[in-house]
């Protein structure tokens, strides 16, 4: 509580004869705290520099996230060996509060904020299918397999509900590493939109599922029925989404009518703009909903509507601002994960659990991707079907990152008798392995699948090139062909697909004119050839 | 510890039958935490909007800082009346750690970073005199008067050393409110530079003095002599300054040679840039020095050297970034101060202490300003003497803000038996009164003294107008006239004055070419007609 006050650690009055209350910390501990933060900042700087050097030399086997993780692992290992271990650990072992209040919100907001509307909306049906249905499938499959593994004594046995919780948290895929490589190599915009859209939305789904399962576990004794579980899930998901969208719309109207862009009040504009996401996050938390889900949708709405009501300077600033803080938060999370893994006394009795978990999440992701792709392809015309190589790339891209780690950290508190610890250890191991292995091999995989340098290749240099006409055929798919098959499911799926198409129309005809100050047809948001990743250089 | 996890407050498993450790917080408390932060964000938004409306209508009696303080006072008062009081208070009553780790560093850095070099360096001697010698005089005078007041039973009696500590902390003046009005009304650049430079540098002086006195108090029994006190003070001040300047120089060299500005890596550039100030802060803390002093000098060095090594986009971004976060932090601090003052159960037995303190700090500031101005005028040629009306404006501008509040918060821990509490109550009262009264009347005062609309008037609209030639006569003062008086002190003062002039030459001939990539004569930093305040719109 009193660390880092402007009082010198050497001469801490609390260590002296002062009668101040709670002065339990010695000067040495305070010094260690300072050294701990210094170390963290140096690791951050090192990560950025190393990542930059690696990228400049086109060394794709160690992306930035992997580099950060490795730096954390190495420093953690060194600290573990040295004597100062305990005092440094106390500073690294920070509370989840910091994680959830300061690190996660900017990352999630940036996910939503950096979604490029055009490829996202043209693949909206597929993305929603993968994110909602697919994550549900993956969670259940993982949960059931882990439970069966436990029953068959292959691995540590967990209760069924806890297996489902593990399934939910481990189904949250992370976009960072894969996408930075996608962008670096230049890949098909539709594949990019699928991978990005899925990994962003499935965080929201995974957290809602996790929370629902946590409720089920808690109320198992009070005899809640399955129906109530579904209601609770919808309550969390839809409620959070509505809160997020609502806050986003309010911000759009505020900026539309406040006229701040005319008055040259860039600082005021930016201050207000950066407060809204956090407002959305806290509103959802205050209402007992999920802040993460809410801030994600706020990000999407604010990018789509509020953003275009800003002055040009502020637009440039807020993009750079959210990019900056999410980069810092992400890098910090990867460093922290590496450090934590090196510092923790992991019980290696979990090694079987880890091994089979990895196997099972691979199976579960296959069940997710290929079944959902089958469903999506049923509704799409022949020209727009998701090709098999894209499905494989999507399957391969499912590495686990910050969200899985955060939920696992949470589960340590939620679950009794070391079950949470087992899940946490397994999750951190899975995160490290997938980040290092999948992250390191994505380039090779993309080349092997021949999806590199596809039609809509975009390199960093060509960012400003306007090829929005190039993939125009994807935007307005023709629904009139191939509809004679008469399959009932197919019909329903097509109706859903049409509803997403009509959402685009709704957006264009009503929402955009109402919430933004731009004219209906000059859509500023749609001129980006490719969504920007959360790392790497960005356009000017 | 477990507040604000993504777990629903309503259905918190820790409140249920979970066996997780440390689950002492109930769902209700978690909800209150969410509501508390929501409230804070809404107050921030309200402050920005209200401040904007007031400024737009040119209502100078309630500047933004005063508005924020009032909003805090009102909401605090309402919360005090309502039933939810206790739960909201737990969230507002945050630790000093948050204050010192997250709120103060950006404000202090921005102080240094927004210093405009030209008027600052041309008035360097005067500013240093006011900040170092003047703050010392003000601290000692206040301390002695408060002690005498105690001895004469006019006010609560404190030990002499604690009186000096109080004198030191209350001598830290705050630039925010006064300067925003100065800038709004347009005043003489030299007066502006004096007020700004003094209030920035005297924070560093006040904190060093406070710490030195704190050490003296602590080691009173161990028989330290006066000489050691001086050494300790110099150690803290010079050590912190060197650390800050050193980190600034390192950053300048890094950006000069890394070549990030060529490669279009704006995000990487900005990430690294924003890490350095914090690094400086933590380095000083880790070394047992003052982080505040260190980060201030890092800000000055980074603005002067590192900044010009950035790409143009990054320059624009980092200026806006530090402006943004310091605005947020400042507004938050003023809201928080207001809220805290409304919530605390102040014992009004301190009312005498408050009354006489205000009287004494007025006297002490007069001793500071007029004696230092006399000394400075001894060395200056007749054309450059500080006029009496500027001295009066300077005397009047000494309102107390965040730094005094922070140190008073600190003193609650440092001092025994409610002495700290007395100082804290007095300081908060002084902060509120000076912010509201001085802040509200600065416009009137400037008009009464006829320093409004002086020679170098700059309005917000004219920011880009390059009038750097206009006050050129101030930069190279002619030292060869008026040197025949032969007074010894006068000679010494002039030597000091010359050394500051030679510092300008050193900077121009050696430091700038070495640490920046620009040519010697095209000095990018010097084209700003007037330093930007930490609030208000900024140039593009």
From TrEMBL, chains A, B:
Main location class: membrane
NCBIfam families in the cross-refs: b_cpa1
Amino acid composition bias (Basic and acidic residues), ranges on this chain: 1-13
GO molecular function: potassium:proton antiporter activity; sodium:proton antiporter activity
Subcellular location: Membrane
Catalytically driven reaction(s): K(+)(in) + H(+)(out) = K(+)(out) + H(+)(in); Na(+)(in) + H(+)(out) = Na(+)(out) + H(+)(in)
Pfam families, sorted: Na_H_Exchanger
Annotated source species: Rhodamnia argentea
Any one of the GO CC terms: plasma membrane
The UniProt record lists the keyword Ligase: no
GO biological process per UniProt: regulation of intracellular pH; sodium ion import across plasma membrane
Transmembrane intervals: 32-54, 60-78, 127-156, 230-255, 275-297, 317-339, 351-373, 393-412, 418-439
Organism placement in taxonomy: Eukaryota, Viridiplantae, Streptophyta, Embryophyta, Tracheophyta
Spans annotated as Disordered: 1-29, 516-540
Matches recorded under InterPro entries: Cation/H_exchanger_CPA1 (IPR018422), Cation/H_exchanger_TM (IPR006153), NaH_exchanger (IPR004709)
Gene designation: LOC115752423
Keyword Transport: yes
Family affiliation: Belongs to the monovalent cation:proton antiporter 1 (CPA1) transporter (TC 2.A.36) family.
Name the record gives this protein: Sodium/hydrogen exchanger
């Amino acid at each position: 509580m009193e660390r880092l006050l402007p009082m010198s650690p050497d001469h801490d009055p609390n260590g002296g004869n002062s009668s101040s209350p709670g002065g339990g910390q010695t000067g040495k501990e305070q010094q260690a705290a300072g050294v701990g933060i210094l170390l963290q900042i140096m690791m951050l700087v090192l990560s950025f520099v190393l990542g930059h050097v690696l990228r400049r030399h086109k060394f794709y086997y160690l992306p930035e996230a992997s580099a950060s993780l490795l730096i954390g692992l190495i420093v953690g290992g060194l600290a573990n060996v040295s004597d100062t271990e305990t005092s440094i650990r106390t500073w690294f072992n920070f509370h989840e509060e910091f994680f959830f209040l300061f690190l996660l919100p900017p990352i999630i907001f940036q996910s939503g904020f950096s979604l490029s509307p055009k490829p996202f909306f043209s693949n909206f049906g597929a993305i929603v299918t993968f994110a909602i249905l697919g994550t549900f499938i993956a969670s259940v499959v993982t949960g059931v397999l882990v439970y069966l593994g436990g029953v068959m004594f292959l691995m540590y046995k967990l209760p069924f509900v806890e297996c489902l919780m593990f399934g939910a948290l481990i189904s949250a895929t992370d976009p960072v590493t894969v996408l930075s490589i996608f962008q670096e190599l230049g890949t098909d915009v539709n594949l990019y939109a699928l991978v990005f859209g899925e990994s962003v939305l499935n965080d929201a789904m995974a957290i809602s599922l996790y929370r629902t399962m946590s409720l089920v576990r808690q109320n198992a004794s009070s005899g809640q029925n399955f129906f109530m579980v579904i209601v609770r899930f919808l309550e969390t998901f839809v409620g959070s989404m509505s809160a997020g969208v609502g806050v986003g719309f309010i911000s759009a109207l505020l900026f539309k009518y406040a006229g701040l862009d005319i008055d040259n009040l860039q600082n005021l504009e930016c201050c207000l703009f950066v407060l809204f996401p956090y407002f959305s996050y806290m509103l959802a938390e205050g209402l007992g909903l999920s802040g993460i889900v809410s801030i994600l949708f706020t990000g999407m709405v604010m990018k789509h509507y509020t953003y275009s009501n800003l002055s040009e300077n502020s637009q440039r600033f807020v993009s750079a601002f959210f990019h900056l803080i999410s980069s810092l938060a992400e890098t910090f999370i990867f460093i922290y994960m590496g450090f934590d893994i090196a510092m923790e006394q992991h019980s290696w009795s979990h090694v079987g659990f880890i091994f089979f978990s990895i196997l099972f999440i691979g199976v579960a992701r296959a069940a997710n991707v290929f079944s959902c792709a089958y469903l999506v392809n049923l509704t799409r015309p022949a020209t727009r079907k998701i090709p098999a190589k894209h499905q494989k790339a999507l399957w391969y891209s499912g590495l686990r990152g910050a969200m899985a780690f955060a939920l696992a950290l949470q589960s340590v508190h939620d679950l009794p008798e070391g079950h949470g610890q087992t899940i946490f250890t397994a999750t951190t191991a899975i995160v490290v392995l997938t980040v290092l292995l999948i992250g390191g091999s994505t380039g090779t995989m993309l080349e092997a699948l021949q999806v590199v340098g596809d039609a809509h290749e975009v390199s960093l240099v060509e960012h400003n090139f306007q090829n929005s006409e190039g993939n125009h055929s994807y935007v307005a798919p023709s629904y009139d062909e191939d509809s004679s098959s008469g399959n009932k499911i197919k019909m329903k799926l097509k109706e859903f697909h049409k509803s997403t198409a009509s959402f685009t129309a709704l957006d264009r005809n009503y929402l955009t004119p109402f919430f933004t100050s731009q004219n209906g047809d000059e859509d500023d948001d749609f001129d980006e050839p490719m969504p920007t990743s959360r790392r790497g250089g960005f356009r000017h």
